[in-house]
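Possible race condition, two jobs.
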Amino acid sequence: MAKPHVLMLPFPAQGHVTPLMELSHRLVDHGFEVTFVNTEVYHARVLSALPPAAGGAAALGGIRLASIPDGLDNDDDRKDLSKLVDSCYRHMPGHLERLVTELEAAGRPKVTWLVGDLNLGVCYEAAKNLGIKVASFWPESAACLAIMLNVPKLIEEGLFNDQGWAERDEAFQLVPGTPPLHTSLMPWMDKMGKPVGEPAVFEAITRFNEFYNLADMVICNTFRDAEAAALKLFSTNILPIGPLFADRELQKPVGHFLLPEDERCIKWLDAQPDGSVVYVAFGSLAVFDPCQFVELAEGLELTGRPFVWVVRPDFTAGLSMAWLDEFQKRVAGTGIIVSWCSQQQVLAHRAVACFVSHCGWNSTTEGVRNGVPFLCWPYFFDQFLDRSYITNVWRTGLELSPSADGIVTKEELRSKVEQVLGDREIKKRARLLMDASRRCIGESGSSYNSFTTLVNLLGK
């Protein structure tokens, strides 16, 4: 009997690829055939980031890799979210239909389910036309999804206009127990309160209810103990199966396509005392200007504590390389700068004391699963909401506050590092939330049971 064949479709961004890759590994372990569909550009990046000796399905633990065009030319700027979203929405449904036809013509088992990112919900109808059932995957928090689905109501109530701009200057909360959020810091905005990728991104969000209602079920990378209030907002069944991980040993590749991981990082951590290291990472998209970069660097130096800092090659522009070389010499005995690392392995390491984070949902759940206190430095999108969870609801971290000119100063960083590391209650709450997350994914836990339900539904 042929294995059930599931097609995975993430939005083309690292934070969307990773959780679906983690879910793919879990499904392969449960006997599914999984075809993972990236856009051509990200497919190439995933392949190039794999070890030189690896190749094909074996490199990703039995997950077969496939690609479709995003509709943009090779020299188009894919960091222009308006252009990317508009092109994906116009071109990807047709390319997905062609891919399914090609897979079946090549003798692959019939695709029975599409597990598709809601951010590419425009492809759901194409799947339905082919007789494929749809599981809508939401890679962020349930509270964020609830906000997105409430956008028409929020517009009707006059909080926002139909372009996504705030009409009222106020904080609001969907229901008690969910994170309070200011109208200038919504999941479609940057830190200046401007809708990102306008007009295409917000136009896409206004269609989320349409896509959501097309799905046969909804999956979310969260867990009940973290988002009990938000999960009660959904009238239809939503399966919280998080926090997702590929394998408990953290050895399986999860499609990191930015840069090869720097293996020095873990060896360096092995030499540090327990609970001593400040880990600093801002994901795949955040960019700092040179002034803020220098303040952050000197703030880490000022703490006098060991640190691991992830600095992508495109993290800042215009910085003096002579200054950076001199800084690295000064902190050589204390800190290590890497271009990329296995974040889950770092956060699970006994030496890590706290996490200076942009608060992307993957980073947030990875920190939660390891009981690590946070220092929150959000950049855009759902990161403001995640910060509110950390500082207002779970109370497992502190916010880094910018000065009047918008810069987080070195003194602010040093002060908050000392505060978070000296706060026993924050550490205690972080450990309790870690324990709750592990109970949820442990045998008979709520996420474990949701995943079992998912496996049974996908297997039909």
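Job #2 (started ~2 s after job #1):
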Amino acid sequence: MIKQILSKLPKKLPKSDSSDSAKSDSGNSTTSFGNVFQCTNVGSTISSKLNVVKRVSSVVFPASVNSGVEAVDPSLSFKDVSNTQKQSLFISKLNLCCKVYDMSDPDKNCSEQDVKRQTLLDLVDFVSSGSVKFTEPAIAALCKMCAANLFRVFPPKFRSSSGGGETEDEEPMFDPAWSHLQVVYDLLLQFINYNSLDVKLAKSHVDHAFVLRLLDLFDSEDPRERDCLKTVLHRIYGKFMVHRPFIRKSVSNIIYRFVFETERHSGIAELLEIFGSVISGFAMPLKEEHKIFLWKALIPLHKPKSIGIYHQQLTYCIVQFIDKDQRLVSSVIKGLLKYWPVTNSQKELMFMSELEEVLEMTSMDEFKKIMVPLFRRLACCLTSSHYQVAERAHLLWNNEHILNLITQNRQVILPLVFSALVHNSQNHWNQAVLNLTQNIRKMLSQMDEELVLACQRKIEEEDSKSSDVAERRRITWERLEEAATGVQSISNGGDILLQVKPTTATCSVAC
């Protein structure tokens, strides 16, 4: 009796033959395959690839990312699955793209790299279509994929320039993995720009650690990557308001390290370009934190030798601050004078270009605070032996706003610069500088002839006094030389007597 009952029970299938048995029994919908697929009607689901949901190894798709989400075969297309499965397929494709390949060897893992790139492109198309719903598992999977592909340590730099980045004589360095990185950046940007993105939900994954790793990537030597990072960080700053103070503080720390420690960073220009638009959005009155950023971060950026790489962006940031509050002009110009180059003519040209832009926005009250030290420095530039520096200093007088400021304060300014103009007229080697000097002297004579004549007389008096002092000094030195010659002859005679006396004494002893 027991044997008859046992013979009617279904036999247990071996693991190796389970799939074959499932195919042979596809017509029997009542058969249970819970240990294999955990679903009923297995034969019909396997025969139709469009409706199948394949279980994927937890090693490839971690449970921490996909908790509560069915993992769909990532090789499927979004068109080949139902709307309810698209979210699972999206996460499966993201996890597939977490695998990072060595792109330095194009022949290595070539087929896998092609599959990954095509999967990334599918993800970008799916997000751009607006069909995705960024739930927490989807956000976590996307941030995990971006972190796996983007966050990496750059090799040491062996550039000849101490400032890092590209200079006029150096070619930019391109990352061999850019074909993948570019699509990842595009996907990240579309995620941040997504209209229905829940910022409160996303900020737990796009957190401070994520932002800080993004900022580290600005040291990349690939200009294409820095350009993408610039756009991504700007969008994060605009959308995640909670991260704004942290981003400002982190960028300040990068600048401090660059200026006072390493003087090596490739992305200072891009960071300043972001902050140019950030500064323009500051509310008035300016917070003390923003002023400190100007004084302790932006102004010291005039110190490094590699300022030419980012000077245009730095000038724009400075101008944006002054546009917000003109009372900052005196601090800016004092900072320029503090870091004014002495031996680097190219930096001097950049400083004077920036100075002209600042002075164009300067009010009369602020100008009076800094005009004395400013024109003392400009007087040195007027007489520079480097003709481009001298020429640029003369051209400042052609600016109408600057000329107006000079005219109204000519009693103080002309005595500071007139001697430099006279010195140029008499001694400068460059004809173009001589012509500009003559033009300025004519302009000053038309502005205030009496003051010019007074300055001329004062210079003549000083020259006369200098000549008298020089003559007295010459006579004094001649007298000293004569006295020294007399003392030297007496000393020489004494030496002869000293030499004779021992000889006489020696002879007497010998006798």
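Confidence is low (pLDDT under 50) at residues 10-68, 160-166, 496-511.
Logs attached separately.
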